[in-house]
Amino acid sequence: MTAQNLPHEPEFEQAYKELASTLENSTLFQKKPEFRKALQVVSVPERVIQFRVVWEDDKGNVQINRGFRVQFNSALGPYKGGLRFHPSVNLSILKFLGFEQIFKNALTGLNMGGGKGGSDFDPKGKSDNEIRRFCVSFMTELCKHIGQDTDVPAGDIGVTGREVGFMFGQYKKIRNQWEGVLTGKGGSWGGSLIRPEATGYGVVYYVDHMIKYASGGKESFAGKRVAVSGSGNVAQYAALKVIELGGSVISLSDSQGALVLNSEEGSFTVEEINQIAAIKVERKQISELASTAAFASKFKYIPGARPWTNVTGRIDVALPSATQNEVSGDEAKALIAAGCKFIAEGSNMGSTQDAIDVFEAHREANAGASAIWYAPGKAANAGGVAVSGLEMAQNSARVNWTSEEVDSRLKGIMEDCFKNGLATAQEYVTPAEGSLPSLVAGSNIAGFTKVAEAMKDHGDWW
After folding, report:
1. Model pTM?
2. Which of 12, 91, 360, 389 could form a disulfide with 96 if both were Cys (CB 3.0 to 4.6 A apart)?
3. Are 193 and 409 in contact (CB under 8 A)?
4. Looking at the domain assignment, is residue 223 inside a domain?
5. Domain limits at 368?
């Protein structure tokens, strides 16, 4: 995968090694040695597009940003993956996200390839007019490379319905076509119900299957204490679904710090989560709410921290839902010490390789119910892109499904994701006696083999 003439891309290399190591440690290459060649082929993007984005701020000054689209793999359908607007965006991060997206999309069972894109533009602190001018300039170039049957971007960090709307409008003006070229659209012009909620709801539906399988159907989210990181769409809707299913949410966070329950009883309420959602729309920090009397009496705010080592009392379930590498090896050990039994990534590559190694070692060394069980983002957070795929289907048919129909399809997709990863792990990875199957290995192998077989049928490798 690496070569001396290639730049160092740490995030992408981490994602590649995480997948490759699970394939190597399974019986896949023993049973199908020709798949080694498929791994080499799939690790190189089909196309990488990089361009400049020139726009004018409110003071009349010309600003310049970098725009990207990594069209990684189209074996299963049009490239599909979000656009991220954040100062940290670079090619390594987008290649890691696009690489993960290939296999995540494969696990949904829908006809979608994998891609990712974005810009190092920061929407925070910008006016609506500045954001609109940036989006117009960004889409003026990107529109040459996308389309409903070619590449269908969506939102991601920094790209909300507002940005999607600005970009869709520019695409329509230049191409003179109304088509489902972007997902995450407004409900009155082609968007799908349940799309904002989908990733958060999906990860909770997935963990619900984990809990029921590990407990033999005796347990559910009822009574579980759930630590959530992040405070964007994924974290908000995961938290709301946990509460709906009878669990207690004991933490949320943002890039500046963590807000955690200051006692071993209680939970965030729906109203408190809605208040956090409201300030996030205004691009403000949780610290502004934490200092109010109502929040200060119930929660403690820890600047510059993540929740995992700062929660009071036990943690039953951990849902990292902020960004990549937000659970370290030491934090993984702290979660186990706090009694955590289930961890599933709402974020992409939310755990470092050290953390994954800690989780997997604990799973292998302990019998089912006493072990921590780890689910990777490519399986657990596939609900967002799944409903994006359902939005594409609705656009193609010029219909709108009810929220109940979309939610029912989402539940079915997440159940299939879980069962597919579970069955594949049981086929290719022999667990220690009494231990739970490896969901990270099963999900990696299931997604990879589906893509590899399609590529072989297309003549991409032999």
Report:
1. 0.94
2. 12
3. no
4. yes
5. 198-380+417-447
